[in-house]
Amino acid sequence: MEGTANKPNGIITMNGYKPFCPYTVDLDFYREARKKFNIHEWIDVIISSIDYNPNGYVDENGNIDESSKLYFLRRLLPFVEKRVNMIELAPKGTGKSYIFEKISKRGWLITGGTVSRASLIYDNAKKTGGLITRFDYVGFDEVQSITFEQPGQIQQALKHYMEFGEIKGFDAALTADAGVIVLGNIDADRFDINKNMVEHISEVFGESATLDRFHGFIPGWKIPPMKTGMIANGWAINTEYFAEVMHALRDDLSYASVVDELLKTPPKAYTRHMTAIKRLCTALLKLLFPHVQKPTDIDPQEFEDYCLKPAIDMRSTIYKQLCIIDPKEYTKVDKQIPDIQLK
What we know:
The protein has 2 domains: 34-229, Rossmann fold (3-Layer(aba) Sandwich); 252-342, no CATH class. Helix content is 37%, strand content 12%. It contains 13 helices and 13 strands. The strands form 5 sheets. Strands 2-6-10-1-11 form a 5-stranded parallel sheet. A two-stranded parallel sheet has the order 3-7. The chain is globular, with a radius of gyration of 22 Å. The chain starts with 26 loop residues before the first helix and ends with a strand.
């Protein structure tokens, strides 16, 4: 560009800026639209909305396998509910990284390198919160390959955060809502919840007191590997829009109230089990039944099949791992998974 008397060569001036966003998130409209679908149709809508083809989930006989779809959708629970902490162990190629890295701008996936307490939790020098204070979830991809600076300090800080939602620095205390997600690849001979599956994932997460603060476990080997036939094909909700809907649902407390009204809390139940199961139930309700605003809006059997039982299953796997790595503590009667019933 030729220079002028007022501007030196190479200068470009922005005269205006208008952000482009072709939609607004209307949760009332979204909830109303959900009523037009049954649960099986809605599961397919969600899968299509995150760039996958629901017809690609087939069993060895070529029949549609809804159970594998539901295992896959468990990955979305931290997108819709605050402070959902999960572990997924799986073979390579099942799409873990894609879901947590590409679907939403609201999450952060750490894919290698060295993690410091300052970058993850709180930077005392800069007086700023780390990744956990800025995103809906923070994931650790292929956690075996990630190095932690001063792992003992990070472990202590994470334990406190995962329990209370608090970030502590030398001169500050912050609250945050991010879920902590651990993703790891394991060999086929470890695809067994009755074996120790966590001993090699990381010294930061493998200790029982830290593991106990994870709400649920996803058996990634039950999710089919990514293949050509699993790429989205046909109409779907726009992925960016759907991600923003999930983000907006995180602030809605009505679903937790519905869960509380539907469940009987057993007397003397272990608090962390109840917290985990209720939080996972709430997330599943938001994801699969977003139109539900009161207990009578959902069929009790559907709630039990699609929310309560999966939540108990996810927490039960964490509990089995705790019993393996710390049997003296976690096989006690008062630490067992409670028998939770509908009212």
